[in-house]
Amino acid sequence: MHNTQPWSWHVGDHRLDLYADRTRQLPVSDADGRNLVISCGAALHYAIAGASSLGWAAATEHLPGPDDDHLAALCFTPHPPTREAVARAELLRTRRTDRRRFIGWPVPTILLHRLACTTRYGTASAVPVTSLVERLRVELLVSRAMFAEDADQRFVSEQQHWVDGVRRATEGIPSENATPGAVDRLRPTRPSRFEDRGDRATDDDSATAIPPSSDGLIVIVTRDDDPASWLDAGDVLCRLWVAAMEHGLSLVPVSQPIEVPETRDSLRFDILHGEAHPVLLARLGWQVLSRSALPPTPRRPLDEVLGT
Ligand SMILES: Cc1cc2nc3c(=O)[nH]c(=O)nc-3n(C[C@H](O)[C@H](O)[C@H](O)COP(=O)(O)O)c2cc1C
């Protein structure tokens, strides 16, 4: 989240251990560490997929303990890479969070169902939001969460710090990635946490000001609301992203309705009928074909995230 890259890897003999780096946790918007562990789950997915494309199979143990921040242990054995593993790693390498406005084509309901039902890992899975009423309710929850966070100066300062804020060039989100629509002079049809706050609907008019959106919506859910489940959710996020890319779709994670307890509860009970815990929302849609590729989001140097 916010390209905090909250992980630390320890290298052993044919072995990698993943640790959460709590110094990179966002204390205001992610006090529980949910987004931090989901981010680490995504990094874990990348490590396994990358190794697999290079000829290494990983036996993985989650939360091997006793340290709660020791999220996973990977033991590698040689295994010839398949063509699928190489193609998958290439998709992951070129993946970006592309926040530019999608074209107006709605994502077909059947495609959203297919993407969701083929995407699960451990206790995490994906639930499509397809009925008109529920889509509108989810959009309202997104607006309410944004309004709540905008009204809290602590959220605003935290986000500003990580988006073109007081940081090094290898972390956080550069403005050309946070608001790329501004470069193309596109006004997003959907609300984005990084857009100019002056352009947003206020809480009073949010019910009527929600623009008609054709974005596909999928909620990533877990059986429990704990670190083991959040780690699985990071894996599901990557699986969903790759599956979406295979259909030419772009995906943008939206965590604000989960960050705010009131909207998280509404999502859980009003939309998911209390059957699962929502941990991340994803917007899906198609980018204009001729649109330029986005620059990669920067990453910290390897020697900073790898230790022995
Ligand atoms: C748990 C989680 C929550 C995120 N929430 C949001 C969000 O609310 N809005 C958004 O635009 N991007 C969100 N993102 C996307 C990250 O900002 C993005 O993955 C990060 O900056 C790295 O950039 P990249 O995806 O291009 O590699 C989220 C990502 C994760 C893993």
Automatic annotation (TrEMBL):
GO molecular function: oxidoreductase activity
Signal peptide: none
InterPro entries: Nitroreductase-like (IPR000415)
Region (Disordered), start-end ranges: 171-209
Listed Basic and acidic residues bias regions: 184-203
Xref: NCBIfam families: Rv3131_FMN_oxido
UniProt-recorded name of the protein: Nitroreductase domain-containing protein
